[in-house]
Amino acid sequence: MSDSSYTFSRRRFLQAGAALGGAMLLPELMSSAWAAGSDAPELPVVKVGFIPLTDCAPVVMAALKGFDKKHGIILVPSKEASWAAVRDKLVSGELDAAHVLYGLLYGLELGIAGKKQAMANLMTLNRNGQAITLSADLQEKGITDAEGLKTLIASAEPGAYTFAHTFPTGTHAMWLNYWLASAGIHPFNDVRTVVVPPPQMVMNMRIGNMVGFCVGEPWNARAINDRIGFTAATSQSIFPDHPEKVLGTRRLWVEQNPNTARALTAAVLEAARWIDASDDNRRETARVLAKRAYLNTKEQYLTPRMLGEYDNGIGKRWRDAHGMRFFADGDVNYPWLSDGMWFLTQFRRWGLLKTDPDYRAVAQGINRTDIYAQAAAAAGNVALPASPLRASQLMDGSRWDGANPAAYAASFSLNRQG
């Protein structure tokens, strides 16, 4: 390590100590399981960005529950304003890693979400738990589902109705596109779409900037509480047990800091396991996330949907069998190649990619199954799958297993392929 790098790392280390109450952190790190020898993390402090969403929980709880120190690092969560800010800070190196949209990471790798940058997915942070909200104004017109929306849109000028998602190549854009297309609504030709940061969704709907949005929790629940919208569809009703946010970073950062990457992944993996261990742990997590430093909202907006208890705001209540999951014996967290490849098929479907990429090669380059396997061993008792591909069935009956991605991408009657 150069003198300047050492000085920078030490300064961040001391800043982290001050932020955590001035505790003497060095002895704790020295006594941890991975603090010495060739396995020692290269960096003592790791700055990890997050957006105020329920699914940032594993990053936050890894720091607050001490799983980071167990693996020889100090994880410093950094609250960010938008996914564009997360992207820019990841690329510049201002953030070491981040809670980030799966599709944003892949978009950067391909140069369609910003300047092309080699990226790395260390693990999946959660499954499910997003939703599509429609406005109370639409409900007053009798529009409560995609089919009703299709009739309304067909009678209007193209682009008369505006919908919002959180990032052009992000997960929410893909869920919104898929849901609209399932009813024969073309997400690029029939409606107008805009990008809005998650915490600003409710305010923008309140003032009439859009009639629908797709975002993570707790902002769908908040729209119901504020009586400005209702849940028309959950993301898990579109793609059961879909991948959502990931722990992302630059590929160069992993290459320069492989032991730190392992330690960070192990710490966050242990936090994900702790959250999913009991409903009491989920409730505690909701209480923490509601605080000003994280989501700055009311606990009541987070807890029910974290527990899988849904109320759509217009009379339907249910216990969701595919609610937000953080661990599930590691099945959630493994960086499945097929998960990454699915986002590539949707980029191709909607013309974000003009030709078919080498789907598997791209996924293998980004999804660091090697680092994850090391982290799973460090965390202990985390199962690894026999194959890096998994099968899923989506709302329209289509089956995705990663076997023939080009054919899958071309199979949709509603598309925008170049």
Automatic annotation (TrEMBL):
It is found in: Endomembrane system. SUPFAM superfamilies: Periplasmic binding protein-like II. InterPro entries: NrtA/CpmA_ABC-bd_dom, TAT_signal, TAT_signal_bac_arc. Residues 1-35 form the signal peptide. GO terms for cellular component: endomembrane system. Belongs to the CmpA/NrtA family. This is NrtA. It comes from Franconibacter pulveris. The lineage of its organism: Bacteria, Pseudomonadati, Pseudomonadota, Gammaproteobacteria, Enterobacterales.
